[in-house]
């Protein structure tokens, strides 16, 4: 698997691909790749002539008390997964290749980033938007692939690309789950056996909430309460938020009569997990 660690080299490679008329897909990741990432790479490989997987734990999107130092990393494992999936290059820069000493330009957003995860992670989306703007400028992809598990990120990046006229298409891909329903996440590796079992309350409560809506409930507060109560009954769970918002505009909703996102963030022990569903009316 070819691993490129500097901007100049990846730019030159992409330039040659484009000169040959080839299309380029980008799968932005922070590494420690799992089946969820693989589904994005598979789709990118199916839809593009060349695929770059960026593998960069972006320091700018972690708050001071978050898990930047301990975030799991395994380039060898990532490389094997990318090779098997048919990706062409891993872009794996060191932080100082992306952010030189006098780095001082940021991409931020007034809407979409203040609610949901933005409430408890105030600098997170500025870091995400900034690194993605850089990756889009460096790799110049035709398409970039994002999982729906981080639905707010998907809405934010789609909006940013539109606002700033980036010349690429954002492709949202479905959540990939373990057999028992837990959404795949690199952070699942932090869970103890007991916490792993407790974490099932996220997908179970969402499944029940979704069924409630599908059976005709349109009162958002009632659906939120049912999810909230189910999660609260799990002793190892501490709720960050349970919300129903309009999709993809992420505004508060009282009545469920148009497209919505139901999103939750829950601490299981010290591990913060997110999950969601989208209903299109
Ligand atoms: O979803 C992620 O892994 C990250 O937020 C992303 C999109 C790679 C930006 O660092």
Shape: globular
Low-confidence segments, given as residue ranges, are none
Sketch the topology as an H/E string, one letter per element: EHEHEHEHHHEHEHHHEEE
Q: Which structural class matches the secondary elements?
A: alpha/beta
User: Mean of the pLDDT scores?
Assistant: 97
Q: CA-to-CA gap between the ends? A: 43 Å
Give the distinct bound molecules: pantoate
Task: Give the helix tally.
Answer: 10
Largest sheet: 6 strands, parallel
Q: What percentage of residues falls in helices of 4 or more residues?
A: 25-40%
Oligomer: single chain
Number of E-type strands: 9
Strand content: 15-25%
| Spatial sequence of strands, sheet with the most strands | 1-4-3-2-5-6
Our Rg estimate from Cα atoms comes to 19 Å
Mind explaining what this structure looks like?
The protein has 281 residues and is an alpha/beta fold. The chain has ten helices and nine strands. Helix 2 links the parallel strand 2 and strand 3. It is globular. The site of pantoate has 10 residues, from strand 2 and helix 6. Pantoate binds next to strand 2 and helix 6.
Question: What is shown here, in short?
Answer:
The chain has 281 residues and is α/β, with parallel strands linked by helices. It has helices spanning 7-19, 35-47, 75-85, 95-98, 117-120, 124-139, 151-163, 193-198, 200-214, 220-232, and strands at 2-4, 24-29, 50-55, 89-91, 143-147, 169-173, 237-246, 260-268, 271-279.
